[in-house]
């Protein structure tokens, strides 16, 4: 009896979530999605975790062979000019805030990009005259909007929206959005670097029982302790981590349905969904 009730509950939940997803797509998504196709069978996604330093030292020759995606503030690093990523994706709405440190990344992109690059942004960002104005003087940067409309429910329905760029999984982290876009571009093999995702190691309580989270990226010289806002408890922090890792589970199944392989080549990573590989052990086929 209990199993029957759980099955009914799950069926109802799937129906409700699917219905909500359809409504969200109809009212929130743009249907004129610009499709970009992969220029190579292989691509690399560069996360900004501290382990990217190690990968760029040990695996640089391999990384340079891949069509690259960069994210967030990679443009403020010397490696941005060296690697010249063909693709760049941002998701955080902080990039719309003129007073936020994210502006350093936009300015670097606008001033340093001397090669053709696709910059993928949520459609909402194109509504900001301030944001769009940052790139008017650089014809090398092509702004390509995408729908960040979260869809859930029946897998077949979610995949139908995914393939057409009308919906996405929840992207608690920008790498989920980037991998999703790389999948839809048609790359056959995707290599992930710098995806440490070791946030749980960074959570601590101070002497007053206040939560503090250390912010750590490969381009920082030292970790920065950030006080978590009041009334934010450990359960909320861990639930956010759950959503981040669950996004990779959704992506793993979606990629598999399309015959696309995602390899986690990060020197350190807690992502367990994708096959873990060492570049030194890969066959010389690329």
UniProtKB/TrEMBL annotation:
Species this protein is from: Emticicia agri
Domain of life per record: Bacteria
Protein name, UniProt field: DUF115 domain-containing protein
């Amino acid at each position: 009896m209990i199993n029957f009730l759980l099955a009914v509950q799950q069926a109802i939940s799937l129906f409700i979530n699917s219905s909500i997803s359809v409504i969200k797509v109809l009212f929130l998504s743009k249907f004129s999605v610009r499709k970009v196709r992969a220029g190579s069978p292989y691509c690399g996604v560069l996360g900004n975790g501290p382990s990217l330093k190690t990968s760029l030292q040990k695996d640089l020759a391999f990384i340079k062979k891949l069509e690259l995606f960069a994210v967030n503030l990679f443009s403020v690093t010397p490696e941005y000019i060296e690697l010249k990523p063909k693709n760049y994706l941002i998701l955080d709405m902080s990039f719309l805030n003129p007073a936020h440190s994210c502006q350093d990344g936009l300015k670097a992109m606008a001033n340093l990009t001397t090669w053709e690059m696709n910059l993928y942004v949520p459609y909402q960002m194109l509504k900001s005259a301030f944001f769009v104005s940052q790139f008017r003087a650089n014809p090398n940067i092509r702004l390509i909007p995408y729908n960040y409309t979260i869809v859930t429910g029946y897998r077949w329905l979610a995949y139908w929206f995914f393939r057409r760029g009308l919906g996405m999984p929840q992207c608690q982290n920008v790498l989920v959005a980037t991998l999703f876009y790389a999948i839809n571009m048609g790359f056959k093999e995707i290599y992930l670097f710098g995806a440490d995702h070791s946030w749980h190691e960074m959570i601590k309580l101070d002497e007053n029982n206040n939560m503090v989270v250390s912010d750590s990226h490969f381009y920082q010289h030292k970790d920065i302790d950030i006080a978590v806002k009041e009334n934010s408890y450990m359960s909320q922090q861990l639930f956010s981590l759950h959503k981040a890792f669950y996004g990779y589970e959704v992506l793993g199944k979606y990629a598999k349905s399309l015959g696309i392989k995602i390899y986690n080549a990060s020197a350190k990573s807690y992502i367990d969904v994708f096959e873990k590989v060492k570049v030194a052990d890969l066959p010389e086929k690329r």
